[in-house]
Design goal:
about 260 residues; alpha/beta; Rossmann fold; seven-stranded mixed beta sheet
């Protein structure tokens, strides 16, 4: 039987999932999901990064272990809710943000939110597969308002969701509110001018990404007063999967210097 002094108290935080906890991390990497995604996307990342870096995955309502919770479709409301959970989780350990597609947008706005309200900011911001936020959307279609069958065709066309998902009708029906909420966040986003970021931005794009052009990724440089780097990796919008080794290699090299 374990003695009391052998037990470790783990504080449950539904917003932040850590698959590989580290006792005394030097740095934390917070990963934000793409639209329709969840924390499992980043489940194995801790195995490919420095041993003293703890990977913390943001789990939004309406997915994964929070599937039955009501998803949030309004970005300001999402930032307010995430802020409370995030501030109760962090300590004096430095942290960085990574976000893919919608996750990049949320990570950017959360960076501004924390800086403005609390004077807290990540050491750097990794953004992946998303145009710079001050640029307009390419499409005029609001996919979150489409009939379910048309919306699912759109999701399928992005090649980021496994085929088996579309065959599981019960899961599809449970997931639709979350998918619509995520798309509403992206499609109704309005950029508000504000101070430039004070941290480095490292941006990633896919060489065959039809959703996000190289030029639109380069525009991220305009919203920081610090350094900027861009890497183009082989793959479509979800090069996050097809070029994961290269992506993690670049992240590894950068955070090793922090």
């Amino acid at each position: 039987m374990l003695k009391m002094n052998q037990l470790t108290l783990i504080k449950y935080n539904p917003w932040i999932v850590t698959f590989k906890a580290i006792k005394a991390p030097r740095l934390r990497l917070f990963c934000f999901p793409f639209a329709g995604g969840n924390a499992l996307t980043y489940k194995d990342w801790g195995d490919y990064l420095p041993e003293d870096v703890e990977v913390c995955c943001i789990q939004l309502p309406g997915r994964g272990n929070r599937l039955l919770e009501k998803p949030i479709s309004n970005l300001p409301n999402l930032l307010d809710a995430l802020q409370e959970a995030f501030l109760s989780f962090i300590d004096d350990v430095p942290f960085v943000f990574f976000g893919h597609s919608m996750g990049a947008l949320i990570a950017f706005e959360f960076t501004r939110h924390l800086e403005k309200r609390h004077g807290v900011r990540p050491v750097c911001l990794f953004v992946s597969a998303h145009r710079a936020p001050h640029l307009p959307r390419k499409s005029s279609t609001f996919y979150h308002t489409l009939p379910d069958n048309e919306l699912l065709e759109r999701v399928k066309s992005l090649n980021g969701t496994p085929d088996w998902f579309f065959e599981e009708q019960e899961l599809v029906q449970l997931s639709l509110p979350m998918i619509k909420a995520d798309l509403e966040i992206c499609e109704c986003y309005v950029y508000e001018r504000g101070p430039s970021l004070k941290i480095p931005i490292i941006a990633f794009g896919g060489t065959r990404d039809k959703e996000v052009s190289e030029e639109s990724i380069l525009e991220w440089e305009k919203i920081t007063n610090s350094s900027f780097q861009m890497f183009l990796l082989p793959g479509n919008h979800f090069f996050l999967n097809s070029s994961q080794d290269r992506l993690l290699s670049e992240i590894y090299k950068y955070i090793r210097t922090i």
